[in-house]
Amino acid sequence: MSPFELTTFVTVLANTIAAECPADDQALLAALFTQLGDTLATLSILSAPAQD
User: Fold this and answer.
1) Per-residue pLDDT averaged across 6-18, rounded?
2) pLDDT tens digit sequence for 26-51
3) H or E element that contains 4
4) pLDDT for residue 43
5) Do residues 21 and 29 make contact, with C-beta atoms less than 8 angstroms apart?
6) Using CA atoms, how far apart are residues 39 and 24, in angstroms rounded to an integer?
7) What pLDDT, on the 0 to 100 scale, is given for residue 49?
8) Fewer Cβ atoms within 10 A, N terminus or C terminus of the chain?
9) DSSP assigned state of 50
10) Exposure string (b/e) for 10-49, b if CB count within 10 Å is 16 or more?
11) What is the C-alpha to C-alpha distance for residues 22 and 27, in angstroms, rounded to an integer?
12) How far out from the chain centre does Cα 22 lie?
């Protein structure tokens, strides 16, 4: 999948969630996906080999 296809997919997904889910659910999903991204970034940094 190209970077353009990936960003298009994410945009379509966000628009679908916005159209189909109540505002409270949208806020919860936003918080969950934010935490998921932050946790994955943290784990990625911590598991990367040290570069001295």
Assistant:
1) 97
2) 999 999 999 999 999 999 999 988 77
3) helix 3-20
4) 96
5) yes
6) 23
7) 84
8) C
9) P
10) eeeeeeeeeeeeeeeeeeeeeeeeeeeeeeeeeeeeeeee
11) 9
12) 19
